[in-house]
Design a protein that fits this description.
seven-stranded mixed beta sheet, 29 helices, eight-stranded antiparallel beta sheet, alpha+beta
């Protein structure tokens, strides 16, 4: 252990914290002239600040630590009272003083006649107060360093001090302190510390500065039973929420169940069998393939089973009822997602951490065999062309993780149940695997092989799942759903599934969360506008007698965030009330050949659209008329498409002249392949800048980025392919063309200029382009609930890398490159080519903000 003194500052430098008996307190001085309380903690989480080691404090002496015990007892008592005002005749203040004396000054006798030194406090009408804030801060410093040495001391402080004191000084552990801010940092372990902190402030913690630390959001939401989304709102919005909650609140018992999986796995059949009211005809008739997404709002009621052995799902027929009655009901909605890849682009509207996921897998499909194309799953020319059943299963686990995982310390823990999984919980929304076609599987040779080699189908499935997502599944069931009457064993297994879904719904963090009572007014408004698909904000607010404009803004924001409506304030006043109707709008245009009527397939623009994703407005309207069978889409066209652009589904292309129809680009429909030889060999090109997503690059991230670049990059001409988009520069841009591409793990960026015009690549332009794209990628990653992390770097130059080619094994991070001191270092990735060198100067001059 090496203690180094620098004036009055003492810091600890040691090889490990094992050499420290117990680090009990930490703090730092930013202004040595006045000891601001900057970093304080109790527990085992050192922050490289100033330490108290082995209960021996090393600190700057406090001017107000020198007084006799009776004076210090009184000052500490004054410090813990509301607004720092102590009345010795008031019972509650006498109790505080007794607690301080009994805990820290047991040797002094009870005596109210304490002679306080001059210049510290003043007394008016029997009320003692500090003369100045600076004196109070120094007394707090003395209290912190003298009295708060153990966990029990901090518990005492959090339960005894007034709300005013806790609010002024206390912060969560990872709160980022602003300059001059005095903070007593509450440790996040043991858990009761945060609970005591939250319990003291109650709803007022929602407007407290500590909510800037997202790591405490889950704890606040759970402890106060409020929506976690509100904690991310702006201060004035949170302030209104607190005010509304203080008036009255109601609990919300709503859950959402999402059925996902590969096409043909049996998702719709599962949903049909979970419902209890089925006739013989419905049981035996074949299931139609789901197109896009089917939303079944409030499909099930969750209530006690008839034998009182737990909750289960009961079929629910929605009807108009008093609002209070509807709020008391425990309801589950179900979304049945299409398995066809053409519709994956629309899934982002509903994928959420506020859900239960039923991932359906067909046991009879070989995991490692490429799925055959048929009229239900046309993937030719798409990113999914060579995928196996395991690829689809992995895709869904990764997708759910991306949209459903909670960052920081959010989420709740469910013990995984797949055989062989670890015992620790995960921070995910629950994923339940339903394996179908069990009867056919057990009678197959594959079943014998799996039993012999792995023990069961589920052990084999887990064996093949990538390591980083092995423990995402919390439960699995094997179902037999043949087109006939169910046996008693089959019915019992279905009932187990219903009960597990019900139990899981009741354990969701947001189940029963409270919202302001007048927010429930919005559900009444939506019910009254049930026939409306889309409405203006003003139309909706007119139906409410007492909601203010700001209140209505908060309500729209909340119900959008939980997935009940679609509303983006920056798009104007439109609110989409019927999300199923909206999803139908683009599920009909994001389609595959099976769902195209013969007369539509012969349309002049159809083949081009199916090839390059360019759709004219006239074709879009005809698709809605022929496939959607809904004339309202034509009426609301100009109000729907901005939402699609916002969600990254399509981009507005414009039209060449007045006679042409408006044109839109839908990236997920583009199957054009960039041919070899079209790599612009006669163009000057920058090295490729890669945004490498080491863990997972979300599918359709590239499409959303391309759509965003239509507005981000000023380009009149574009060349668009399924995995690369070129935004061609104009004279204004000095003909700098931007190429954005995707491979399995990276988003790639390259800038080009035509050689024939003898136009050089200008570093100020390449850097400006990088800044724009990097900012947009960062913005898009934040739209996912889980961590979507990436690293910026370059493919090594040992071999020529063409844009769109895989570069994962040859990726060199920019941070790694900056650490290398030599100008042309050997390539760290290509040991075979030991003579190969990296042109560090060129890379950093063209792309980097940090020059040599």
């Amino acid at each position: 252990m090496d203690l180094r003194r620098g004036g009055e500052v003492v810091s600890y430098r040691g090889r490990s914290h094992d050499s420290v008996d117990r680090v009990t307190w930490l703090w730092r001085y930013w202004n040595l002239a006045r000891p601001d309380i900057v970093r304080s903690c109790i527990g085992l989480y050192p922050h490289n600040d100033i330490y108290i080691i082995d209960n021996k404090p090393h600190r700057k002496p406090s001017e107000h630590r020198k007084y006799p015990p009776d004076v210090m007892s009184l000052l500490y008592s004054l410090l813990l009272t509301e607004k720092y005002q102590l009345n010795l005749n008031e019972q509650s203040h006498r109790i505080i003083r007794e607690k301080i004396r009994d805990r820290y000054f047991p040797d002094i006798t009870e005596d109210n006649s304490v002679d306080l030194p001059d210049g510290i406090t003043e007394t008016r009408d029997d009320m003692i107060t500090f003369i100045s804030d600076d004196i109070r801060h120094d007394v707090m410093y003395a209290f912190v360093t003298d009295c708060l040495l153990k966990d029990s001391d901090l518990e005492f402080f959090l339960t005894t001090a007034s709300c005013h004191v806790i609010s002024e000084y206390c912060r969560s552990w990872w709160h980022e302190r602003s300059e001059g801010e005095r903070c007593l940092f509450i440790p996040n372990s043991p858990e009761k510390m945060y609970d005591l902190f939250i319990d003291k402030l109650q709803l007022d913690i929602i407007t407290h500065c500590t909510v800037s630390d997202r790591g405490i959001h889950k704890r606040i939401s759970k402890h106060l039973n409020i929506p976690e989304e509100v904690l991310k709102w702006e201060f004035e919005e949170r302030k209104r929420f607190v005010r509304s909650m203080n008036k009255d609140s109601v609990p919300m018992f709503r859950a959402r169940c999402l059925l996902v999986g590969c096409t043909g796995a049996g998702k719709t059949t599962v949903l049909r069998n979970l419902k209890r009211k089925k006739g013989k005809e419905e049981t035996e008739q074949p299931t139609e393939t789901t197109i896009g997404l089917d939303v079944h709002q409030d499909l099930f009621l969750i209530r006690q089973s008839e034998d009182d052995s737990g909750s289960t799902l009961i079929d629910y027929e929605r009807h108009t009822a008093p609002l209070a009655e509807n709020y008391e009901k425990r309801l589950l909605s179900v979304m049945d997602f299409a398995g066809q890849v053409a519709y994956y682009a629309c899934h982002q509207v509903y994928l959420s951490h506020r859900a239960i996921y039923l991932l359906v897998v067909d046991m009879t499909q070989d995991l490692n065999t490429k799925l055959q194309q048929d009229d239900r799953n046309c993937v030719q020319g798409t990113l999914f062309e060579d995928w196996t059943a395991l690829d689809y299963f992995t895709f869904w686990l990764q997708t759910i993780r991306t949209y459903g995982e909670n960052d920081d310390d959010k989420g709740y823990k469910i013990k995984p149940h797949i055989t062989g999984s670890s015992e620790h919980g995960n921070k995910m929304t629950p994923i339940i695997v339903l394996a179908t076609h069990g009867d056919s599987y057990r009678n197959s040779k594959a079943s014998e092989e799996d039993t012999s080699k792995y023990g069961s189908f589920f052990v084999k499935l887990r064996k093949h799942i990538p390591e980083n997502i092995k423990n995402l599944v919390c439960k699995h069931f094997e179902l037999e759903l043949p087109p006939r009457e169910r046996s008693q064993d089959e019915l019992r297994e279905l009932e187990k599934v219903r009960r597990y879904i019900a139990k899981t719904a009741e354990s969701l963090p947001h189940w029963g969360e409270k919202v302001p009572k007048h927010w429930s007014e919005f559900e009444r408004i939506v019910q009254e506008r049930q026939g409306s698909k889309i409405a203006s904000r003003e139309q909706l607010q007119e139906l409410s007698e007492y909601l203010t404009e700001n209140d209505f803004d908060d309500i729209l924001k909340f119900y959008h965030e939980i997935g009940m409506i679609l509303y983006f304030k920056d798009l104007g006043n439109d609110v989409i009330l019927d999300i199923q109707w909206f999803v139908d709008a683009f599920k009909n245009i994001i389609t595959d050949r099976k769902h195209v009527p013969v007369k539509m397939a012969s349309h002049d623009d159809w083949d081009q659209y199916f090839d390059d994703g360019m759709i004219t407005e006239s074709l879009m309207l005809k698709i809605w008329k022929e496939i959607g069978k809904d004339s309202s889409y034509a009426r609301y066209l100009n109000r729907i498409t901005p939402f699609m652009e916002k969600l990254g589904i399509l981009a507005k292309m414009g039209k060449k002249d007045r006679r042409e129809s408006q044109c839109y680009y839908i990236p997920s429909m583009n199957k054009r392949q960039l041919k070899k030889g079209e790599q612009w060999t006669r163009w000057k090109k920058t090295p490729i800048l890669s945004f490498y997503f080491k863990t997972y690059l979300p599918h359709f991230f590239f499409f959303r980025l391309v759509v965003a670049c239509f507005a981000l990059l000023d380009s009149q001409t574009k060349e668009l392919y399924k995995n690369i988009a070129l935004f061609c520069g104009t004279e204004k841009d000095e003909y700098h063309t931007v190429a954005i591409a995707v491979n399995k793990t990276s988003i790639q960026l390259q800038v080009l200029t035509p050689t024939g015009n003898d136009i050089p690549l200008r570093t100020e332009r390449t850097r400006a382009i990088r800044t724009k794209i990097e900012k947009k990628i960062e913005e898009l990653t934040k739209t996912f609930h889980g961590h979507v992390d990436y690293e910026i770097g370059f493919p090594c130059s040992c071999e020529t890398t063409l844009i769109t080619e895989e570069d994962e094994k040859r990726f060199i991070s920019e941070k790694e490159l900056l650490k290398i001191s030599v100008e042309n270092p050997p390539c760290p990735k290509c040991k075979v080519h030991s003579d190969k060198r990296i042109n560090k100067k060129e890379l950093l001059q063209i792309w980097g903000e940090n020059e040599l």
